[in-house]
């Protein structure tokens, strides 16, 4: 009996599954770093608790939400009219240059490091269970 096809199948399966074994711990580590960064860079103005707005809106459930739509939060007219849908790409671009994405935005803090933006986004995504 020729076992070569079985060996090839096993090898391919190992190549496909192996990265998945390391992805979850890496994502958890990135989210943990994101939490630290969120507390240091974002928590003065934002929370991740639904219904608890500060100077900026709560970021609980931010993924899939339309910009300027959190009830009770104060927004600039620019943000109210921006009509963005928050996802990883939109958050990445916005965090890098808030006033470049939404001229007239009251958000003054930008996150210049791509790694830090990715970690903060991973943290926000983890808060949403995803």
From TrEMBL:
<keyword id="KW-0732">Signal</keyword>
<dbReference type="InterPro" id="IPR009056">
    <property type="entry name" value="Cyt_c-like_dom"/>
</dbReference>
<keyword id="KW-0479">Metal-binding</keyword>
<dbReference type="GO" id="GO:0020037">
    <property type="term" value="F:heme binding"/>
</dbReference>
<dbReference type="GO" id="GO:0046872">
    <property type="term" value="F:metal ion binding"/>
</dbReference>
<keyword id="KW-0813">Transport</keyword>
<keyword id="KW-0349">Heme</keyword>
<keyword id="KW-0249">Electron transport</keyword>
<protein>
    <submittedName>
        <fullName>Cytochrome c</fullName>
    </submittedName>
</protein>
<feature type="domain" description="Cytochrome c">
    <location>
        <begin position="29"/>
        <end position="128"/>
    </location>
</feature>
<dbReference type="InterPro" id="IPR036909">
    <property type="entry name" value="Cyt_c-like_dom_sf"/>
</dbReference>
<keyword id="KW-0408">Iron</keyword>
<dbReference type="Pfam" id="PF00034">
    <property type="entry name" value="Cytochrom_C"/>
</dbReference>
<feature type="signal peptide">
    <location>
        <begin position="1"/>
        <end position="28"/>
    </location>
</feature>
<dbReference type="GO" id="GO:0009055">
    <property type="term" value="F:electron transfer activity"/>
</dbReference>
<dbReference type="InterPro" id="IPR002327">
    <property type="entry name" value="Cyt_c_1A/1B"/>
</dbReference>
């Amino acid at each position: 009996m020729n076992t070569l096809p079985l060996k090839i199948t096993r090898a391919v399966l190992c190549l496909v599954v192996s990265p998945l074994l390391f992805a979850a711990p890496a994502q958890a580590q990135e989210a943990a770093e994101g939490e630290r960064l969120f507390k240091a860079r974002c928590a003065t103005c934002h929370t991740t608790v639904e219904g608890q707005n500060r100077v900026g809106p709560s970021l609980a459930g931010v993924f899939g939400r339309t910009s300027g739509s959190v009830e009770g939060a104060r927004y600039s007219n620019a943000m109210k009219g921006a009509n963005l849908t928050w996802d990883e790409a939109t958050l990445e671009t916005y965090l890098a240059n808030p006033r470049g994405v939404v001229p007239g935005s009251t958000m003054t803090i930008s996150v210049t490091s791509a790694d830090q933006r990715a970690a903060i986004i991973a943290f926000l995504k983890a808060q949403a269970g995803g």
